[in-house]
């Protein structure tokens, strides 16, 4: 038996910084990705797709989007879809039109015996630790999978179920399928079972890459799994330009060009300025963004560089407004990052540049 474990698809989600037209395109692309997931199941003999929450990005979904998803599910009648709601989902979405091959877990723990495996789950958002753990009821002689949308944490969060993995020891769980955290992680529950976050299903955003799912295979009563990447049309890429040896704006522009030379026009890209630069270096960030943003689906520059400061020289200078400003900032009760930001802003102001505060 083959099973897909996926979560956090966030259908209908976009990326607000690209504007309404591109956002509409991204929303449509997210739906096509879901259709591709179902097609993968059809072509590879997958019998079960487990969706561990946040199938949608918003609690209110367009009727056309809902119909597209339910049509995809109906197009694969041989695949059973198990779905536990996440904090971005709402059970009322499926009140009127639930495909026969879609099983939505209630708040109370429920389980389904598929012969080779038992799949249990809950659409709980919040639970006391005691009640949540007490509700889990698996037969020790079965191969058991538990589906949840949750934090593994000793802290309590208002938007989601939280518990510590030690709470699930000796509950006869072979595989804990988790959603909510977009980072790929896994670990042991006890000697018998392990927990797995499938990671970012399809949400757009820096820090959420790579996107994909977990493919589980059960052979002769034994469970094995591997991660499978989607082949996204667009990647989220961070590039870095170090300013330590850059003396002129022309050199800086060439380094930005070099950093993005292999980036596809379909991609999202951020360029980070790093290192230490001379205070006289005019970065002209707005100009660079304007020049490069038309070459990519999204382009931005983040300046995280520091200004080289000769502290001893500043202390010796007299009748210098810049030196006085730097000395006052260096003596202030602030973090190093706050001091750097103040110095950069102050020097820009002294140059007569526009300053954003």
Distance between the termini: 58 Å
- The CATH homologous superfamily of the largest domain is called Metallo-dependent phosphatases
N-to-C order of helices and strands? EHEHEEEEHEEEEEEEEHEEHEEHHH
Name the shape in a single word.
Answer: elongated
* Proportion in β-strands: 25-35%
The major β-sheet equals: 7 strands, mixed
Q: If you compute it from the alpha carbons, what radius of gyration comes out, rounded to the nearest whole angstrom? A: 26 Å
Helix content: 25-40%
Indicate the low-confidence ranges by residue numbers: none
CATH names the topology of the largest domain as Purple Acid Phosphatase, chain A, domain 2
User: From the 3D coordinates, which CATH architecture of the largest domain would you assign?
Assistant: 4-Layer Sandwich
Give the CATH level 1 class of the largest domain.
Answer: Alpha Beta
Structural class: alpha/beta
Q: How many helix segments?
A: 8
> What count of structural domains?
3
Describe the structure.
The chain has 357 residues and is of the alpha/beta class. It folds into three domains: 2-229, 4-Layer Sandwich (Purple Acid Phosphatase, chain A, domain 2); 235-305, 2-Layer Sandwich (Translation Initiation Factor IF3), CATH 3.30.110; 309-357, no CATH class. Helix content is 27%, strand content 25%. It contains eight helices and 18 strands. Strands 5, 6, 7, 8, 9, 10 and 11 form a seven-stranded mixed β-sheet that branches. Strand 10 (185-188) and strand 11 form a beta hairpin. Helix 1 (20-43) runs parallel beside helix 2 and helix 7 packs antiparallel against helix 8 (336-351). The longest helix is centred in the N-terminal third of the chain and has 24 residues, at 20-43.
């Amino acid at each position: 038996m083959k099973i897909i474990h996926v979560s956090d698809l966030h259908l209908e989600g976009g990326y607000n910084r690209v504007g309404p037209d591109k956002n509409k395109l991204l929303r449509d692309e997210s739906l096509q990705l879901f259709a591709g997931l179902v097609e993968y199941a059809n072509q590879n003999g997958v019998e079960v797709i487990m969706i561990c929450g946040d199938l949608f990005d918003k609690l209110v979904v367009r009727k056309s989007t809902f119909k597209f998803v339910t049509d995809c599910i109906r197009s694969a009648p041989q695949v059973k879809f198990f779905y536990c709601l996440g904090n971005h989902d709402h059970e009322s979405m499926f009140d009127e039109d639930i495909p026969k091959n879609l099983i939505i877990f209630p708040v109370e723990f429920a389980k389904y015996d598929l012969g080779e495996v038992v799949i249990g789950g809950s659409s709980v958002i919040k639970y006391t630790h005691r009640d949540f753990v007490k509700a889990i009821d698996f037969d020790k002689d079965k191969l058991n999978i538990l589906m949840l949308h949750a934090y593994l944490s000793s802290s309590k969060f208002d938007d989601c179920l939280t518990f510590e993995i030690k709470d699930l020891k000796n509950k006869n769980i072979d595989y804990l399928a988790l959603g909510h955290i977009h980072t790929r992680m896994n670990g042991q529950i006890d000697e018998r079972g392990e927990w797995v976050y499938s990671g970012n299903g399809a949400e757009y955003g820096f820090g959420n890459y790579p996107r994909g799912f977990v493919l589980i295979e059960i052979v002769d009563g034994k469970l094995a799994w591997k991660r499978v990447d989607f082949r996204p049309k667009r990647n989220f890429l961070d590039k870095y330009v170090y300013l330590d040896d850059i003396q002129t704006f022309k050199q800086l522009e060439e380094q930005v060009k070099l950093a993005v030379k292999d980036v596809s026009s379909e991609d999202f890209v951020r360029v980070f300025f790093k290192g230490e630069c001379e205070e006289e270096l005019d970065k002209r960030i707005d100009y660079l963004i304007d020049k490069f943003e038309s070459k990519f689906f999204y382009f931005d520059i983040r300046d995280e560089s520091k200004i080289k400061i000769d502290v001893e020289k500043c202390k010796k200078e007299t009748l210098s407004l810049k030196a006085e400003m730097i000395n006052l900032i260096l003596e202030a009760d602030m973090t190093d990052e706050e001091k750097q930001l103040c110095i950069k802003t102050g020097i820009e102001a002294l140059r007569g540049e526009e300053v954003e505060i």
